[in-house]
Write a structure and sequence with these properties.
alpha/beta, about 40% helix, two-stranded parallel ribbon, about 270 residues
Length: about 270
């Protein structure tokens, strides 16, 4: 009898952005519909941190469009307003990130968590940036682990390195390592390059960088930038495929490969 082709047990090289032979291995595009359906049948719940940001907004939209989770919860400092009917069943937990221990219940009972929290030094100052991108993220991860979360997904940055002399990359690297020490059943780190999006906030330097990379041919811009929607689809495609790895690190190249797999499924 023939065996149904699944990705289960396959050590996919995309998980660390490595190149490798693909013969005798089913591609992500061949198995993704089955993986998504299998995932839906598990009735998992998910929480999203940073849903008001550019990546978080697209992530929530894609999660709802794909109907991957039976329960979707947004955790943030304020309640978000949605007009679309698709958002009517989205749960929202309003918390004070300075007193997260008082809101531990918001992190209980979720199978999967996505953290897209982040600010900038220019917006919050050096101290504020460290507090949001490291302290808030780490405390949230601790509460999520205590609340039963099995798979934690962290949006980081290309070049993250706790030994870096650049504060932004140093803090990103520090929080990656601190969250890994919590020992989730599965921990996925995403390190995209420059995120290509139409950010609502006015940041002239970022706007110019995005315009520059957005004007280049994709093959030239790909090593250094990636569309937000591609990052989000990579995060979700990775979540639905089984893995026996406790920690996965996906660089910009791996994010592109995994995120673009979604496109080939569209009619």
């Amino acid at each position: 009898m023939g065996r149904t082709r699944r990705l289960r047990g396959v050590n996919n090289p995309c998980s660390r952005g490595e190149d490798g032979p693909s013969f005798n291995k089913p591609s992500m595009t061949e198995t993704l519909p089955n993986l998504q359906e299998d995932f839906r049948m598990q009735n998992k719940s998910v929480f999203i941190l940073g849903a008001s940001g550019e990546t978080g907004k697209v992530l929530v939209k894609e999660i709802l469009e794909q109907s991957l989770f039976s329960k979707v919860t947004l955790i943030g400092r304020r309640k978000l307003t949605f007009e679309e009917e698709a958002y009517k069943n989205v749960n929202q937990e309003v918390v004070d990130f300075e007193k997260l221990d008082d809101y531990a219940s918001a992190f209980q009972g979720h199978d999967v968590g996505f953290c897209c929290l982040g600010t900038t030094r220019k917006k919050a100052g050096a101290e504020g940036f460290v507090r949001v991108d490291r302290d808030y993220v780490l405390k949230s991860a601790e509460l999520a682990k205590a609340g039963g979360c099995k798979h934690f997904n962290l949006l980081s940055s290309q070049g993250a390195d706790k030994s870096s002399n650049f504060l932004y990359l140093q803090i990103k690297g520090e929080v990656e390592a601190k969250v890994e020490a919590l020992e989730f059943d599965r921990y996925s780190i995403f390190r995209p390059g420059v995120l290509l999006c139409d950010r609502q906030e006015s940041r002239p330097s970022e706007w110019l960088i995005r315009k520059f990379f957005g004007s280049l041919p994709e093959s030239w811009a790909r090593p250094y930038s990636v569309p937000v929607v591609t990052v989000v689809r990579a995060m979700l495609n990775n979540a639905v495929r089984p893995s026996d790895k406790k920690m996965e690190l996906l660089d910009n190249k791996a994010i592109y490969a995994l995120g673009k797999a979604h496109d080939t499924l569209k009619p």
